[in-house]
Amino acid sequence: MSNQIVVPFGPQHPVLPEPIHLDLVLEDERVVEAVPTIGYVHRGLEKLVEKRDFKDYVLIAERICGICSFTHSVTYCNAIEHIMGIEVPPRAQFIRTIWMEYSRMHSHLLWLGLTADAMGFENLFMNAWRLREEILDDMEATTGGRVIQGSSKVGGIRLDIPDEKLGEMVDHLKSIRPLLEESNRIFTHDQTVRHRMRGLGVLSKEEAWDLGAVGPTARGSGCDMDVRSTGYSAYGELGFKPITFPHGDCLDRCLVRSEEVLAAVDLVERAVAKMPDGPIEEKVKGNPDGEYFAFSEQPRGECMHYVKANGKKNIVRHRVRTPTFTNIPPLVKMLAGIELADVPVVVLTIDPCIGCAER
Amino acid sequence: MNEQKHTVIEIAVTDLLKKAEEYHTKGHRLVQIGCTPLGDRYEINYTFTTAWDFESLRITVHDGDEIPSISGTYWGAFIYENEIHDLFGLSVTDMNIDFQGHLIETRVPTPFKNPPKVTIVSKGGDAQ
């Protein structure tokens, strides 16, 4: 008969870039239950909306996360624009889409590097982060910021990208594409990666759906769920198809992200090819009055910004449901039954962003 | 502009469990549960979807009311219900995993709760 012991995991742990605490209930080396605790970095940003002008608040919405920052600002803007009936010019929608896909590329490459590091695969870690720098260079060149861009605003965008620069961005992506494909090939076929992640932390398709998993966590379990399918921003004109894998284990969640980096390159190329001319913003008059649930597909999955306004410059309520928050119940399920030594890798595969989860 | 279709249905608190079970039976997933403080009351939205047509059940509650947990139907609902308890101080009954106020450890307890009504009393003692 074995005794149960509780091993604390986090909030400070080498594989955790941000603080989440798990009480792991163990029988010998096997996890029987995982109890999460968050709140170490709760900032109350949703409350701040009551004190800030709804237009200025875009910059705060962007700071919910240091990785999906641009997508947060666009989703908030989408909610306000729908309430106010603002038609965002097509060029602004296309440029927003390009920056969102750049965010996806740098987020996924960050995660792929962290995962390689957690497995002790240092070369692969350095390779992924070197490629991420190439993406961040283009973000910085076009917005002035590496991770916080500040380039989205209610009604459109603050900065245009000249057509010449768009061409240079496509050329740059074409030049690094072979390196991205090589990285993808290693994650797909390398024996070390497969041995460490295949069959680990399995979440079936039914469990993923029932527990509310989103993003690569759901798509790695075969769920064909991606908000980009709804065609928001310019996705409806780019021929988007979600990437799914069937096994529901750590490797498939990894492969979804690895493939999505290449798919993002394709989307940027198509967006540049179809880039319309015209203005980049619509003038905003008055204050919002009403409510709207805006959804977007962040690198980590489906994100929702709920905005309720009453015709004043301060919003009544801004509620953000981030992908990490909804992926916590699936994580709790995945952890039950695995070995203690596998916990770090499984936790990483939901790509936890605690800054997002706690806002 | 691409609209994501979203229908909000206002229901009584007593109908919540039955409605949640209906959505579960029809194969909807739980997207989120979110609370909005509105002066003396709170609106709570339970959002469901099968594909991309969203539906939200909306209940209205007050401080001190008890909200039945839907975690018996949707296992993952505990994360939202504990969040509502920890941030707004609302009482959710029969959660499958009850953190007793320790899921989100904020320095100020229940930071999003409606502020208490303040009555200004003049020097003479009459409330204004």
Automatic annotation (TrEMBL), chain A:
Alphabetized InterPro entries for the sequence:
ComplexI_49kDa-like, NADH_Q_OxRdtase_suD, NADH_UbQ_OxRdtase_49kDa_CS, Ni-dep_hyd_lsu, Ni-dep_hyd_lsu_Ni_BS, NiFe-Hase_large
Alphabetical list of PROSITE patterns matching this protein: COMPLEX1_49K, NI_HGENASE_L_1
Q: Which Pfam families match?
A: Complex1_49kDa, NiFeSe_Hases
Q: For Ni(2+), which residues are the binding ones? A: C65, C68, C353
A molecular function annotated in GO for this UniProt entry is: nickel cation binding
Family membership, please give it: Belongs to the complex I 49 kDa subunit family.
State the protein's name: Nickel-dependent hydrogenase large subunit
Organism in which the protein naturally occurs: Methanogenium marinum
UniProtKB/TrEMBL annotation, chain B:
Q: Which domain of life is it from?
A: Archaea
**Gene3D superfamilies, from UniProt?**
NADH:ubiquinone oxidoreductase, 30kDa subunit (3.30.460.80)
InterPro entries membership: NADH_quin_OxRdtase_su_C/D-like, NADH_UbQ_OxRdtase_30kDa_su
Example GO molecular function term?
NADH dehydrogenase (ubiquinone) activity
SUPFAM superfamilies linked: Nqo5-like
- The NADH:ubiquinone oxidoreductase 30kDa subunit domain is annotated at 28-94
Protein name according to UniProt: NADH-quinone oxidoreductase subunit C
Specify the species: Methanogenium marinum
